Protein 1
Amino acid sequence: MASSAESCARLVGALLAATAALLLSGCTAQAVPRKEPAVRRTVVVPPGGTLIDGAGATFPAALYETWFRTYTSNHPARVVAYDPVGSGEGIRRFIGANLADGERVDFGASDAAMRDDEIAAVPAGALLLPVTAGSVALAYHLPDLPAELRLSREAYTGIFLGTITRWNDPRIARTNPGIVLPNLTIATAVRQDSSGTTFAFTKHLDAISDAWRAQYGPSTLVNWPGSAMRATGNEGVAARIRQSIGSIGYVGYEFARKAGLQTARLENRVGRFAAPDTTSVAAALTGVPLPDNLRLYVPDPAGADSYPIVTLTWVLLYRHYDDPRKAEAIRDLFRWCLIDGQQYAEGLGYAPLPASVVRQSMVALDRIR
């Protein structure tokens, strides 16, 4: 019979092994949507003023920050506060079920337009209002690379499917002649929160890859293959890439630019390699009709100059507000964003909306009461 000391040692060893297994499984386990804690902000509203409170997507956060600051400076009786907590959390707070103190919002924001069942869950009715557009860039960290990386559709889908695992893979080298690619393991950086940026990226992968469609499809949250590095928000993914040599991840173009990251040119539908800039986003959206419900996806845009991964982003508004003064303030705010605010988009890495989309959005905005 084993001594009590031996039994104790075996027990400790078993516990350590179990703990190690749990930690290792956590490296590849599916990220679970997190309920973001309510952000306690100090917001000063003047006597008789109106607070307009919103939360949601990180993708347009840089533009929203400029818009809301500028609007408030010109309308001091109206204060706009926005929490960039991710599209999934923005939709949750907008729907309004089981909210904690400080979570209720006057508008949500998402890069993944609400589904019909989500809209049906909003007692006051919901309006999806497209307000800007942008691209999802594939940013990478290869500091010694002498030229801009070009990735074919086969290459970047293979990277995120986990079938291309080294930077000197022939499927990457083929579109980068004359460049000596490093013999490094590829580390992918992805979102761990429910994300409209993830939805836009996977909506594109679903459109171009049978293998992706069979395994994953479009989603705001993905159980990524391999040992993907997970982070919250576009800023979190950009930081992961910046810190990790050999990494690549998907982020809103404006976040990649702000972080000083290299971004790949991606093969579009006609076989040309396009950069994720505002010109190629505008080309992707040109002539694309917006349906009556304003819910438009362009998962694989046509056109020789189009960047292949683009998305509209929406604010989520109630069709009916209990306070008529609040309703008027919200209509006025987003009228300003759709007209005067568009001039700020390009300088921050977003694409101004086509005139036809602005017209339809303005008509929809007038329905709010």
Protein 2
Amino acid sequence: MQSYLTHYRQPKANTNSWKEIVDQLIHLRKSKSYSQEVLAHRIGCTSSLIHKWEQHKRVPSGFMFSCWLDALGAQIKISEKI
């Protein structure tokens, strides 16, 4: 199911690419044996916010994505879709 970004003059389709990144971050958190509470402390936010991100109920801002990556010692590599 596609959602639409409505803050543009013409609605734009919102892809779900960010969900793949979140799923990878969840896997990495679990592989490091971090609880949501530990991760929240490392980022400096609440564990309920981590829970909402991981349930795909909220989308972290670009800054919070980078904080999440830093807290897990990860980085994003950009490549063209094939």
